[in-house]
Amino acid sequence: MNQLSNAQRRAVTHVDGPLLVLAGPGSGKTTVITRRTRYLIEDCKIKPSQILVITFTRAAAREMRERFLRQTKNDGTAVSFGTFHAVFFQILKLAYGYGAENILKEEQKYQFLRDSIRKAKLELDDEAEFLSDVAAEISRVKNERSDLNTYQASTCNSAVFKGIYNDYDNRLRRSNLIDYDDMLVYCYELLKERPDILGAWQRKYQYILVDEFQDINQLQYDIVRLLAAPEDNLFIVGDDDQSIYRFRGAKPRIMLNFEKDYPKAERVVLDTNYRSTPEIVKGAGKVIGHNQERFPKEIHAAKDTGFQILTHDFPTQEEENACIVDKIRTYADKGGAYSDIAVLFRTNTQPRHLVEELMSAGIPFRMRDRLPNIYDHWIAKDVFTYVRMAFGGRKRSDFLQIMNRPKRYIGRECLEEEEIAWEVLLCCYEDKPWVCERIEKFQSDLKMIERLSPFGALHYIRNIVGYEEYLKEYAEYRNRKPEDLLEVLDELQALSKGFKTFEEWFGHIEDYRKELERQSKEQEKESNSVSLATMHSSKGLEYRIVFIPDANEKVTPHKRAFLEADIEEERRLFYVAMTRAKELLYIFSVKKLFNRRAERSRFLEELLEEEHITC
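User: That's the sequence. What structure does it adopt?
Assistant: Structure tokens below.
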């Protein structure tokens, strides 16, 4: 107890009734949870089996349990440590006899959804992307208990979404399967409808502790409230300033309203940051202070002093990446470990250019998120199909892929052979001269593409062939913003710039693909490596040195952030990224992104309101 701060001690020694613990970054919240659990058992003589500790990931639950067991003098194995899903599935298991075989596997889920989408007869060029989007939207509907009859879908037409949802849900029921969202829905319904079962679980778990409470969604909260009643020995730990999962249904409002739901709740603020320097703590506090929907709090650093936050505005991403690589190399040359360093990005597609630079420089790195290979994107595949055909390819499958991208009004009826013949095609449409004109232009376009550099060919395909117009039409059909698709073309064109021939570029693409595969298989083996992570996946981690590149509008905050609630979530995400740094924080912006003028992020402007420290 002597090692704890006053605030930590107040939290640890709280016994009965609800308590809200506001735990800022690096404030020792895990220590508080494990020590409080130990205090309940050793000092208050609470039975370990009556204590439930809930967190969000299996890894966090496992780490919490291991830390607790290392501390406890008595046998604490009876304490329940688990994720929401694990705890709620246990309740369903005992009530309904569910087993592991009743849980829908991820590959099954996508096959069910794929079947449902095909029944809806949607014409999709980006089926994989659509599958992911519709799966996420179904999850949101279930977790928010939305009324499907009045729900306005975002992935597609609402009537179409309703059909896909119902078909998928019926398939689950017929197969006697439940997905992870059903675990929550069914558990809530069970506890509401069966007071006897609810009472049994309430008697079992007399004390409930919830970690990372800011990430809770409404359905999870409703179930926890049921379990905690009537004693309401509910100990919640979290930081409203780190609530960054709105897309999963988490809302800071739940935490902000906790004291309204529990008027007798006490509050403890863990306001000392043991991780970062005063300069980083102060800078991060300046940024997050612009949010309105938050608990007002002042976080202080336990450390005495450190380096200023370093910022720089680069003309291009190439120069930004070169600076990052140079600083990493300099640090390593002086004996520093690569594992001390993290580069944090807003999205998982951002690191592509830096990955190529790190590969060239021979700097070991590991990805905390799967980096989608842009060369596998369906738009890139269309472009490469044009190139293959320009260099003499005549495969029917290739021709089918791009023959109407843009619209040329060519049908499949004239394409019976495995290889296409232009003469046969023209003969087939001799009664439709306007189609023949398009076929002839297609031929001449391919001849022109063959003579161009990769950069020139991409410019020709998007602007002269008309592929860009096709993408705009497809975006309208899919109810998406055209920029989302055009950005893929922008990035492809930027990546092609340094290559004189397609042979050279395709050789590089193959090397890049192999490196990503190697990364996927071997990243756990290389412990001394630079971490590349999204801001989301960096939460809970810490590094001696952190780089935040591309601190620009439409990147962070993201271009899809329009409402004030969106901007506040983006600011919280930026705050999370800043507070990962222990000693040195670099925040970089660029003046141009994909050959377009870029504005510095408002979050960076907020940081620099009083001073501008550049590196």
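The two ends are 42 Å apart (CA to CA).
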